[in-house]
Amino acid sequence: MKNYQEEDFIVRYPGIYDEKEQEALDKFWKEANAINQRGAIDVEALVTGKLPEDTPGLGPFIQVTEAMIKYNHEKYEQENPVYNDKEYAKKAGYLDIPAYRTFGCHDDTFTTAFPPEARDTLCVSQASHWIENFQDVYAGDSLYLVTDKRVMEDITPAEGSVYRSVVNYNDGSVYNQKGELVNKVHFHYVESVRTFKPERRPENFGSKGFADIWEAPDWMGKEDHYYTDEDYEYFKEIWKKEEIRGAEPRYWEDVQIGERPAVNLEGPLIESALPAPFGHGIGGTRTMKKEILDEEIFKTMIRDHHGIYKLQNAKDYTPEIPNGARPQFTIDDGREAEMNEKLDETAKKENDGATTGVDTSDIHGTEGDARAAIINFYGRDLTTHHLLSWAGDDARLESISWSIMPSETHAEWGCPVPKSPYYVYYMKQVPELEGKRITTHGVTRDIAEIHSVVADKYVRNGKYIAKLIWWINDITGAIWIDGAAEISLPHK
Question: Is this structure's pTM higher than 0.85?
Answer without folding.
Answer: yes
